[in-house]
Amino acid sequence: MQRGMIILGLVLLAGCIPKPDRPAPSPQPGPQAEALKPDKVLRQCHADLARAAVAFKPLPDRTFDGGCSAIGAVQLLDIGTPVTNLGAMTCPLAANFARWVQEAVQPAAQRHLGARVVKIESMGTYACRPVNGQAGNKLSEHGRANAVDIGGFVLEDGRRITVKSGWNGEDRRVRDFLRAAHGAGCGQFPIGLGPDANALHHDHFHFDMGRGPYCR
């Protein structure tokens, strides 16, 4: 009996002695972590552009003073519709822009104006400046090659439609086309601004890949 009590006591005492900590197993990267790698995202974006029959040229990563950069950017060469004044664009911006033109702008022009768009007039992409060009504001998405501004459209019948004159112009068909293009852009890009946003956008649409959604 006494021997049994001694053995029981030793067992209970052993249970109270702390065991040395074992190092936790290192987490292994899974498919989701792999999918988030920037190089894999960029390769997928390039593949998406190629699949959409978009001709483009990858650009080297660049950084500039003032926190500006063009990382993972491309130069769009042919999206099926000529576009003027396009500079460096992040690949996601370029992919969304090409899709907007192909799937929204062209159908809207046919529907409201009865003609195809043969040229889109861009007001630029990359520009190292603060929001609205006003000192003291945070860095614009243009400063990250992550925004594009569109000022006008030229139709196959020779008509030139501008945001400045057409948004509140007399031709209802032009107004409807511009609002359809702007509204579709708001669905395609996280941020969409136009003449109703503020006076600084009275003559163009601004689309960017910043934190949204915001449409005005």
TrEMBL record:
Record-annotated Extensin-like C-terminal domain positions: 44-216
Domain of life: Bacteria
Annotated InterPro entries: Extensin-like_C
Identification of the protein by name: Extensin family protein
UniProt source species: Allosphingosinicella flava
